[in-house]
Design brief:
CATH topology of the largest domain: Arc Repressor Mutant, subunit A
Number of helices: 9
Strand order of the largest sheet: 1-5-4
Oligomer: single chain
Strand content: 15-25%
CATH architecture of the largest domain: Orthogonal Bundle
Distance between the termini: 56 Å
Number of domains: 2
Number of strands: 8
Radius of gyration: 18 Å
Largest sheet: 3 strands, antiparallel
């Protein structure tokens, strides 16, 4: 039986454009099971029906869930927000590679990209160009906060002013990397 209080909270999260991650950070900055994700998984059929009746699709992956509008499945268009997310994730990936960091910089609480590092990146010509092409008018820091943190693709480590990828953020980051690899291998073949 579903929990009405959790159901309302989950609905609010989804309607605010957020994903529900399998894990969340506790006050000590450690991963813990997210009760919203557990609630969804334990009552999956009920939630699928609820969102289906509202004209939405509940998308459940092994480490996260989200809702989206049901559209013509033959059309695979990226939304503005997903393109912004992809651009911001590319910028974070470029930072890790250019700084010779390990991927744990973006995935583990012992790492994390700091607010100061984001501020330093704001003056990088490539970053400025990417933000312009993505039609983002704010600073890198504000775009990261509003787009990635606001949708729970990045999690803020409590008390540290650092961010790491959430479960959904990792999945989207991997997708961005794979798309880059695929497009690079296709262009290299011509």
């Amino acid at each position: 039986m579903f929990d009405r209080h959790l159901s309302k909270d989950i609905f609010d999260e989804f309607m605010n454009g957020k994903v529900i991650n399998k894990h969340r950070l506790n006050n000590a900055g450690q991963d813990e099971q997210n009760p919203y994700f557990t609630e969804l998984m334990e009552n999956l059929d009920d939630y699928k029906m609820q969102y289906d009746m509202s004209g939405l699709e509940l998308v459940v992956k092994p480490s996260y869930a989200l809702v989206r509008e049901v559209k013509d499945k033959s059309i695979d268009l990226k939304t503005d927000i997903s393109m912004k997310c992809a651009i911001l994730l590319m910028i974070l990936g470029k930072f890790v590679i250019n700084g010779n960091y390990r991927m744990s910089k973006l995935t583990e609480a012992s790492g994390g990209i700091t607010v100061d590092e984001l501020a330093l990146l704001e003056n990088d010509d490539d970053v400025i160009e990417l933000l312009e092409k993505g039609r983002m008018k704010g600073t890198l820091s504000s775009e990261v906060k509003n787009t990635l943190v606001g949708r729970k693709l990045l999690l803020e480590i409590p008390g540290a002013q650092k961010y790491i990828l959430s479960d959904a953020g990792r999945a989207f980051f991997d997708e961005v990397v794979q798309n880059y690899i695929d497009s690079d291998s296709v262009s290299g073949m011509s």
